[in-house]
Amino acid sequence: MLIRDEGQMRWLGASLIAACGSGGVITLSGNLGAGKTTLVRGALESLGVTSGVRSPTYTLIEYYELQPLSVAHLDLYRLADGEELEYLGYRDYLNSSTICLIEWPDRAPGYLDNVGLEVSIDYDIDGRRVKLLANNDWGKRIMASIKPE
Prior knowledge:
Number of helices: 4
CATH topology: Rossmann fold
Shape: globular
């Protein structure tokens, strides 16, 4: 799907999070500046988060305790090894009431075996080209609900 501007990327984030229904893992892949954090910002703002949403590049995990679902935003860019996820307590967020939005999943090969939906964002002459790949029924349900603006 073609995303032409920041507003549409935020819309996509809001649409993805609205369709989740329960906790699960969504990965976000793309080059620096592709729009991963903008997508997360749209998702969190749609849930009522009003404080500035930033990529947790240095903290690695930002946790938002919300109702009915909480969100764990992870940025793995600075991870030296996927095993570091274990030390960060990543598995503590894998439950039915937490949505994990993970930027730079390629930094933890073999440690993200429960991904429901993969979102890849590439540059396009007209904006950004977004591809969705569902890996389970949860991801398929989310993917089916996305109708481009």
